[in-house]
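User: Modeling request: complex.
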Amino acid sequence: MIHALLVVAHGSRRAESNDEVRALTDRVRESAGDRFAAIDCAFLELAPPSIPDGLERLIERGATHVTVLPYFLAAGRHVAEDIPAEVEQTRTMHPNVTIEIAPYLGTSEAMPGLLLETAGTPG
Amino acid sequence: MIHALLVVAHGSRRAESNDEVRALTDRVRESAGDRFAAIDCAFLELAPPSIPDGLERLIERGATHVTVLPYFLAAGRHVAEDIPAEVEQTRTMHPNVTIEIAPYLGTSEAMPGLLLETAGTPG
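Assistant: Request completed. Predicted assembly structure:
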């Protein structure tokens, strides 16, 4: 099994915001060691690649299992409906590839600690 | 100095999303120990309290220093312009209170690790 990770962000009209996601994905790749055979990002809207395109690229490179990670803080319509619908398109095209959607980032149990760390120490 | 923390989220039409932020803020409060005298949340739009209202409540409870933490993943207009503009209103009303805006959550150096943790271990 070749397992890949696709970080899915909303996408923005601001190129800098999309570049920020791409740079974060680079950092995730550096941190991941050999946990995933490939790590890419994709966008729900407003920036390339789309989720189906991002999945397709990973599958072309040999992925047989892809974890889709929603880079979202809240469980809105995007997380609950739109991302699953996009993923379903690729599942239909590639029934032999396992694609699972991980919990969205906001659910992380480490989030309170991350918030406190970002807030800094009261001076 | 009495130092408080205000977690600022975007706010959603979905009540569940706003409640998620409130529950997260409760968890932050539990994790924080005595680092901050008070920890609340506020919303840029679509849900109460607003940022000025949230700041006002903390100041009423004695805060002389407030750290505003943008619970945002990307540096869009909301982070760059809207939150600072709202904070400025309160600064004008309360010149003796120090209000600082922390980096937004997406800048955290721990974010790649959090993403990998949320993605789980390839099975």
